Amino acid sequence: MGLVPCLMGLARGSRSTPNIRASPNNQDGEFGNSSVSLCCMSWKVLEQRVQTLERELDAAITAAAHARSEKRQAESSQKAAESRAHEVTKELENTTKVFKLHMEELRGMQEQISKRDNEIKLLEAIIQTLGGKERLRKSGVNE
Description:
Layout: H1 3-11, H2 35-142
Helix pairs in contact: 1-2
């Protein structure tokens, strides 16, 4: 008797088959290699396999849910990082603009300082020239 007919017999409630014979070595009345005991063992093995597969399925479902949760968290973190990078970039651009304005201001001030420095040098040269002529006059007059 094959596994499928055995399982079908069990499903119908038939637990006895014409092939059942008592084992001569068995004193408890259990059936040795009868098709019912083989069928029951196969049934138990299959039932255990189903339970194992159900546990594996539950574990896989839990792992998938955990992976989805981690993915959502990673996406959220990525969005936050992208937002922060955008903010930092914007701040850097603004700082660069302010720096350029200050540099232009400093160049303008440096040009004014250089211009005034040249004017001071010119005035010093004029003073020295005038001062030298004064000395010449004084030295020529006193002699």
